[in-house]
Amino acid sequence: MGNIDLDPAFIQSTEHRPVPKVVEVTEIPVIDLSGSRDESLIISEIGKACEEWGFFQIVNHGVPSELCKEVEIEGKKFFGLESEEKRKVKRDEVNAMGYHDGEHTKNVRDWKEVFDYLVEDNAQVPSSYEPDDKDLRTLTNQWPQHSPQFRKTMEEYAREVEKLSYKLLGWILSSLGLAADKFHGCFKNQLSMVRLNYYPPCPFPDLALGVGHHKDSSALTVLAQDEVGGLQVKRKSDGEWIPVRPCPNAYIINVGDIVQVWSNDKYESVEHRVVVNTTKERFSVPFFFFPAHHVNVSPAEELVSEENPAKFKEYNYGKFFANRNRSDFKKRDVENIQIQHFRILN
Ligand SMILES: O=C(O)CCC(=O)C(=O)O
Ligand SMILES: [Fe+2]
């Protein structure tokens, strides 16, 4: 990376390039989760934010800030290793976890390196996306050997952020009038994972993106970002790209595809992307709250009626996950990995 010529794999099509534009910037809502606040107020603020933005920030969330700092330090140390060292834990056909520097979003290469690990190691996934294939395979974490602290920190972090995710999901479901623990069981043997994202400075910030525009396939995502900035969210009211300003010790939460389906479209999984810059490296850590492979996702029956029929057909999350990680085509079939594929058209 960083050559004078940009590898065409990174070049966004004209319509997706970030253009500097003056828009009236509104901020995504910031919600204070302090235990002293009335829970029903928190629930109604979350509901409003999910409906209006699909995105919000949270403060006083209970994850220790020293632990978050430690994740950043250990993460940056890892990405600073020689390429050869990082490649020892490289993701491949067999192992979908670990280090990767060729991530693509919508067939365009992202200007970043990643390290992925599962919250529940050795999670089972379907071996293929073919509906009739019942075989399962095991996904196993790969840990770099340069420092024992790396694994310890990352595992501790995963447990904390998982706890927070259950709470957030409960509040989101309560805001829809559903039981807070309605989908709790879906996350036993979950496929949830933490991703460390490292975005090096980029000499071509007007042609390439750190992550191209996309929606998350999770139930929800809990994202930590450093002070550099670069995340942009597509504002629902007018489709403008709005920067999410870094806020110290806050998390950015977004509704993922699964909550969109469970809510029968009341809450939308909103598009977002990451722009890069010429001088600063950026570090971010999303936690994707993914259910277990056997979970079938469909709109909550309480939210479906004659006047408001189901907007989605049921889909199996494991097959969806396997399809996302298909290794039998270099360029991913974008259409296949969208929940739109399961939308009921009438
Ligand atoms: O780095 C970020 O701010 C967001 C990354 C992201 O959207 C993703 O990994 O899905
Ligand atoms: Fe994302």
TrEMBL record:
GO molecular function: L-ascorbic acid binding; metal ion binding; oxidoreductase activity
Keywords associated with the record: Iron, Metal-binding, Oxidoreductase, Vitamin C
Family annotation (Gene3D superfamilies): B-lactam Antibiotic, Isopenicillin N Synthase, Chain
Name of a matching Pfam family: 2OG-FeII_Oxy
Coiled-coil spans in chain: none
SUPFAM superfamilies assigned to the protein according to its UniProt record, in alphabetical order: Clavaminate synthase-like
Listed InterPro entries: DIOX_N, IPNS-like_FE2OG_OXY, IPNS-like_sf, Oxoglu/Fe-dep_dioxygenase_dom, Plant_2OG-oxidoreductases
Superkingdom of the organism of origin: Eukaryota
Domain Fe2OG dioxygenase: 182-291
Family assignment from sequence similarity: Belongs to the iron/ascorbate-dependent oxidoreductase family.
Designated name of the protein: Fe2OG dioxygenase domain-containing protein
Organism: Vigna mungo
